[in-house]
Specification:
single chain; 2 domains; 7 helices
Amino acid sequence: MMRAATSGMFDFARFDPWDMWCWKKLKWTLNELSLQQTLDVKRVEHNHWVTMAAHGNLTPESFDRAKTNAASAMNEFLQAVYPWLADKIGKEGTQTDRDDAIASYQQIIGRPGEPQYEAMIDTILNATKNGKMTQRQKEKDRARIRAARAQEQLEARAAYNNRS
């Protein structure tokens, strides 16, 4: 609202909190301000990724990443400019490496509310409740981990030997 007032988009001196029409105008103004700022950010983001893609020392992987992110920023820009065409513009190219990383993380770790995730959080909380481990506790924990790894290696070797 501060930006709406300082930019002159909305005059709060004439705002009547009991008038529903004023509330509608305020909502429209804030939506338009948000849209303009989104467009500015997406334009800068697209220009950034296009500039990065034009760099001469890119590897094929970094070029593909820059190209994907530039396409994603352009699609988001077009969806903000033409919201009535957002369905036709589609989601092609809007999946960035960051989105992929988040999806992979959530697939491995889980999401809040899932039993696997909650069990992990409970384990971490229980481990941190007791405070720092003594030297003896650290040694016992390391020995337990070493034994578990050795057992896993034995099982893997046995499975490999039984395979043939």
